[in-house]
Structure formats: C-alpha cells, structure tokens
Amino acid sequence: MDKLSRELFARACKVIPAGVNSPVRAFRSVGENGPFFVGRGEGAYLYDIDGNRYLDYVCSWGPLILGHNPPGLRQALEEALGRGTSYGAATGQEVELAELLVKTVPSLEMVRLVSSGTEAAMSAVRLARGFTGRSRIIKFEGCYHGHGDSFLVKAGSGGATFGVPDSAGVPAELSGLTLAVPYNDTAALEQAFADWGESVAAVIVEPVAANMGVVPPAPGFLQEVREICSNYGALLIFDEVITGFRLAPGGAQEYFGITPDLTCLGKIIGGGLPVGAFGGRAEIMKQLSPLGPVYQAGTLSGNPLSVAAGLFTLKSLVEDPPYRELERKAQRLEQGFRENIANLGLKASLNRVGSLLTLFFTGGPVTDFASARQSDTAAFGKYFHGMLQRGVFVAPSQFEACFVSTALTDEMIGLTVEANRQSLESCLK
Ligand code: KE4
Q1: Which of 176, 189, 223, 385 has the fewest C-beta atoms under 10 angstroms from its C-beta?
Q2: Which atom of ligand 1 lies closest to the CA of 118?
Q3: Which residues pair with residue 164 across a beta bridge?
C-alpha cells in the first residue's frame, strides 16, 4: 500500500487487532501487507487516502447496490439527523420500513429490526428453537450467517456427525447442536434428518451462497430443502442478508419462488448504515418478547438514521427496479471475464447469479465448499493485486462475492474487463 495508508495501518495495529474492525478488511487472505484506508466513496468509485481511485465491486460487502452517496440519500439522512440520532423509543419511520418489508418480501407477515446480519441470524435461530421446542440446527458448509456462536462450526467428520467449533471460544457443547452438511447435497440433508429429524429446530441456508464465493443453488435444491423441512416440522430460514433486495425486491425467495418460514435481512435494507431484520409467519414472530417467551432486544434496533437510509434505498429499488439493468451489466462483465479466461487458456471458472459473481482460480465447476476450496488462493491474491493496481477493487478473498452496483456505467464495465484481462495475463507469468 502507499505511504499514508501504510502509516495509518501502523497506527491502527497498535490499538485495533490487525488494524481493522473486521478480519477480511486486513487483506491478509490476498497476501497484502496491509489494506488501503478509505478517504471517501462517490458513485462507483472508492478513493483511498493516498489519492488512488478504484472502481468498487465490494460496495461495503453488498449494501451499496446504488453505489456510494446516491443522489437523495444525503438529503434523507440530513432530514432524519435534523430530528435527532437515536431515541430508544418507537418512531413512525421504523413502522414504515417494516410495512415496506412485509409488503415486498413474500415470507414476511411480521418483522423485527436489529443492527446487523449477525443479530438477525442469531435471533431467527433462537426464535426457531423457541417456537419448535427443539435444539439442533442444520447449516450448509461454506455458508456464513454472521459470527453467532451457533454458526461457527466445522462440518463434522461424517455427514451425520454434529459440528465441532470453528473458532476458539465456542464451547463444543454448543457447536455440537449444529450440523453442517454440504451445500447442494439434499441426500446428506435427508440423511441428517433421518438421524436427527425430531430434534432439528431449523435449517438455515443462504439461498444463493455468497460466502464461499458465489455458488448458485442446484436446480431443485431449494425446493427439496423446503419439502424436507416441512416433512419433519423443522423451520426453513433463508439468510437473505446478501440476496435480499439484491436479486429482486423480494430477494431470492421471489427470484426462485420458494417461501421460507423465517427470513434474515441486512446490508441493502440499511442503505449502508447499520441494520438487520428478521421476520416470517406471524404465529412464529408472536413468540417474541414481550408478546411471547423468546427474548430479543436491541438499543439501536430501528435506529432513525439507519431507517432513513434504508427507506430511501428500498423505495428507490421498489419504485424504479434496476434489476434488468443490473443483470445486463453483470452479464457483460461475466461474458468479458469468460472470454479473457478462454483466450488465455486459464484454469479458472466463474459463477454468477444476478449482480453477484465470483471468479474462481480452479477449473470448476464450483458447486459447494469442497470444490470452491480447490481454488488456487495464491493466484487469486496475484489477481486481486493486479486488479487493484489497475484501479479495480474486487473482494480481497477468493471466497467472497463481487457486487455490481447501478452506479457502474458500460464504460466502467469495459475498463474492468480490460483490467481483468491484463491481471489474468500477469497471473500466468
Ligand atoms: P453482519 O453481522 O456482518 O452485518 O452480517 C453477517 C452476515 C450474515 N449473513 C450473510 C449471508 C452474510 O454474508 C453476512 C456478512 N457478510 C460478510 C461478507 N461476506 C460481511 C463482511 C465482513 O464480515 O466484514
């Protein structure tokens, strides 16, 4: 990194672990000796404090589907700011946001706002356990649902053995209640239910996996998961923190036509400010305190500034849906990348769903975490560096998604494809 970022990073490392407030931001998985530090964002661009400008395909890990500082967002925030920043009491705006979510996301009859995707997923699982009276949960290897203890589990050795902790600090007793099975493997899920069905409270899934890189659901996978859960009386939780309002206004559940029992949301619904939400059938949601016995709370839940940014963003997406335009731009990006890979004879593959895509440094196909892990992460690190040097900021990890925003113009897509070609070429040397 350049001088000012390097100096600030040295300062940061003295007071913040690894100098960052979230691990992936350290750029360690791409072999960089430290990250750039951001000065500002504007439209499709991110500017670092050394004056470098990057086309931004991270978009704050998904929230900025409209790019940085879209026209009107600042005004919406200034209006909210003029009334205060936080009350710890109910406001009409959070009711308006809840009504918009319930109207737009098929599975939502009721919803609760929280402050992060992790909180949404943690709360949804506690609610599922409270509603069913069961303790076990099933997740899919390679899917990420935030850093709640129940989710940080390694897949058990066999398909039907429960998880072991994937992080220090998570008691084995707790991770033993979570079973991880391979994504897109309904036979393994069926077997898990055959062994443990009556004790499984819920299955939680990213309807499009985006935390092992982008991995689409195999045809019929989501429908089969839906049916298996229904057959065993377990709840199906769609973690739509990334896919919510990304693939369609109603998220993946609208895009694929599958209705879960509970849904987790985040990122886009806050327009870049801290937010999360979880919701579903009223009979389940009414188990929540103070109506029911499942406790859940939050000081900044429904924060007025987050709600203002969320309302601005979602109204824009619902009133003037950009999804056809995002599909066209993302398709152009995919096509350009595929042509570069083919022309260079590179061992790489690419998965895309809507405006989410990942270029894998493995011949592919990448259909689950085991195949994603075949990727050459050192080559990806060289690629990341090559793209950064050419003014393109892609996710600093092989196992993340790239996000296309409405702020990207066709010219920028073209520049990105050329940067991709040169960066891939440099990987061959
Ligand atoms: P947060 O607690 O980070 O707001 O959301 C957790 C979460 C839950 N569910 C899904 C599907 C998610 O992708 C996430 C968070 N995504 C990561 C990026 N893959 C956030 C980036 C980071 O951890 O810094």
Answers
A1: 223
A2: 2
A3: 154
Are residues 275 and 260 part of one domain?
Answer: yes
- Look at residue 16 and tell me whether its pLDDT is greater than 50: yes
243 touches ligand 1 (CB under 6 Å): no
Burial class (CB in 10 A: 0-12, 13-18, 19+), 228: buried
Residues 223 and 352 in one domain: no
CATH number, domain of 421, equals: 3.90.1150.10
Cα atoms in the Cβ-side hemisphere of radius 13 Å centred on 319: 7
DSSP β-bridge partners for residue 288? 294
Q: Indicate the number of domains in the chain.
A: 2
Ligand 1 centre from 267 Cα, in Å?
8
Instruction: Report the residue count for the chain.
Output: 429
pLDDT tens per residue across span 29-52: 998 889 999 999 999 999 999 999
- Identify whether residues 288 and 258 lie together within a single domain: yes
End-of-domain residue from the set 262, 288, 319: 319
In terms of residue numbers, what domain contains 45? 3-65+322-427
Residues 306-344 have pLDDT tens digits of 999 999 999 999 999 999 999 999 999 999 999 999 999
Q: What is the pLDDT of residues 338-374, one digit of tens each?
A: 999 999 999 999 999 999 999 999 998 999 999 999 9
Residue 23 pLDDT: 94
**241 CA to centre of ligand 1 in angstroms:** 7
Residue ID of nearest Cα to ligand 1 atom 18: 61
